[in-house]
Design goal:
Largest sheet: 6 strands, mixed
Strand order of the largest sheet: 1-2-3-4-6-5
Distance between the termini: 26 Å
Shape: globular
Mean pLDDT: 95
Number of domains: 1
Low-confidence stretches: none
Radius of gyration: 15 Å
Strand content: 25-35%
CATH class: Alpha Beta
Order of helices and strands: HHHEEEHEHEE
Number of helices: 5
Helix content: 25-40%
CATH topology: Aminopeptidase
Length: about 160
């Protein structure tokens, strides 16, 4: 990810997050929480993932247009936290998400990580399926966790 990718990455993130909320989470994930989450998709937030040795940001492009994004950070002890991944809605199912995960895996290994993980809600079927098809396993089910919502921890060991 480069600075000039930030605006397109924000727009893509907001579009995908709102549409997936409408399709999969509307009945269980309060709109107020979604609105708070969307505020995090800002220039300053995305800028943090550029040039910081403890964070990463990758984009997928098609004909000069950003069609996918993966950002995350490294935690102490060799853990890579895939904080956000998305693919343009019209591009889903074409392998872009898997390619981004592979890029994150390779980069995380280079940085000495032994594990990659992500949080998701059980309702985000497309995210859960992406993680499972990329070799992740459900490591934990967090019942009534943040804001009394259920979450999954999906993990993949990199060794």
């Amino acid at each position: 990810m480069k600075k000039e990718d930030i605006e397109s990455s924000i727009n893509l993130s907001i579009e995908v997050r709102v549409k997936t909320w409408e399709k999969y989470e509307k009945e269980v994930y309060p709109r107020k929480l979604l609105d708070e989450e969307l505020k995090l998709y800002s220039y300053d937030t995305f800028l943090r993932f550029i040039g910081d040795e403890n964070r990463y940001g990758f984009v997928a492009e098609d004909d000069g247009r950003i069609v996918g994004l993966a950002i995350g950070r490294f935690d102490q002890g060799g853990i890579s936290d895939l904080s956000w991944i998305c693919t343009a809605l019209e591009e889903q199912g074409k392998g872009i998400g898997k390619q981004l995960i592979q890029k994150v895996e390779n980069y995380s290994k280079e940085k000495g990580c032994h594990k990659l993980f992500a949080y998701t809600t059980p309702n985000l079927i497309t995210a859960v399926n992406l993680y499972l098809s990329s070799g992740f396993v459900q490591e934990a089910f967090l019942r009534k966790h943040w804001h009394k919502l259920d979450f999954l921890i999906m993990s993949k060991w990199l060794e």
